[in-house]
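Key result, reporting period 2: structure in, sequence out.
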């Protein structure tokens, strides 16, 4: 028997009709320019924010003569002399101002974060008559500028004899409408209602539920509220300017302002003002670097995973 090889049919020479589908060539993806443009805008914004800080850090190393004669971003040789002069000026009054700022910002931020956490948790997890109206009033408080409330707050505190004391700076910063709003968002997203109901069935009180269950679940969000409030109080100038008259109770912002006002007649004080500004920025940088891993990139992220 002879093996036969299969023969292939000849290629069809029939013309392709218009209705037949043709294989489409892969199209080239258009160049995505929007992410590149967004990156450029972000880099420009970062440069706009960082260049003044870099200038302060560089200028703090210059002597009074170098400050007005050398290139702006060229480092100087008088850093240690400026720090020594700043520390000895007024018997070390600058460091007293630094301790005052740490007291105002630290205690005020902790108290404000705790109050905001309690208020935000209550607004998110409890339904009572007028809760929506109360939350709307709190949102309206976010829109009110601080300068509008400064004089009424001074009059109220002066009527009870607290104007000019540490309490006159601490008490007004405890209530933070924006912090309450953020804590309400964090509590609604991170604390499940089923967990609260299970704790109530086990006989836990509301105080224990809030301290043992709600606060740990809201911890990352509360770090964000604490950081925002700490930076806001640390940089606050208007409230201490209105409330305080004793220089020993001044924060850094108000103390550096007195340096600057005196420097109008004495140019040797300008390096002290710049050096003090550079030193006052260092605690904020350290705090941001230490707490950045706790930031909440997504405010609506849930508190439970898996």
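The corresponding designed sequence is given below.
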């Amino acid at each position: 028997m002879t093996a036969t090889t299969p023969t292939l049919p000849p290629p069809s020479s029939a013309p392709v009709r218009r209705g037949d589908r043709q294989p489409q060539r892969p199209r080239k993806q258009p160049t995505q320019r929007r992410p590149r443009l967004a990156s450029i805008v972000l880099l420009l914004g970062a440069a706009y924010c960082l260049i003044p800080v870099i200038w302060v850090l560089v200028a703090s190393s210059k002597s009074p003569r170098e400050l007005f004669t050398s290139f702006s971003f060229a480092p100087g040789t008088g850093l240690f002399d400026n720090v020594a002069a700043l520390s000895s000026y007024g018997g070390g009054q600058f460091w007293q101002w630094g301790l005052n700022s740490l007291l105002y910002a630290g205690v005020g931020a902790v108290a404000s974060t705790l109050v905001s956490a309690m208020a935000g948790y209550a607004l998110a997890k409890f339904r009572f008559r007028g809760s929506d109206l109360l939350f709307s009033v709190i949102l309206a408080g976010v829109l009110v500028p601080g300068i509008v409330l400064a004089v009424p707050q001074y009059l109220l505190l002066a009527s009870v004899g607290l104007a000019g004391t540490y309490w006159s700076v601490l008490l007004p910063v405890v209530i933070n409408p924006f912090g309450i709003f953020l804590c309400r968002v964090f509590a609604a997203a991170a604390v499940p209602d089923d967990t609260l109901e299970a704790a109530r069935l086990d006989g836990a009180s509301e105080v224990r539920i809030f301290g043992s269950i709600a606060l740990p679940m809201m911890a990352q969000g509360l770090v964000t509220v604490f950081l925002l409030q700490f930076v806001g109080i640390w940089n606050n100038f208007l409230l201490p300017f209105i409330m305080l008259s004793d220089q020993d109770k001044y924060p850094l912002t108000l103390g550096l302002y007195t340096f600057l006002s005196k420097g109008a007649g004495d140019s040797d004080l300008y390096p002290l003002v710049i050096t003090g500004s550079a030193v006052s920025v260092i605690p904020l940088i350290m705090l941001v670097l230490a707490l950045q891993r706790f930031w909440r990139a997504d405010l609506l992220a849930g508190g439970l995973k898996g």
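Residues 95-294 form a domain with the MetI-like fold fold (CATH 1.10.3720.10). DSSP finds 14 helices and no strands in the chain. This case is discussed further under Risks and Mitigation.
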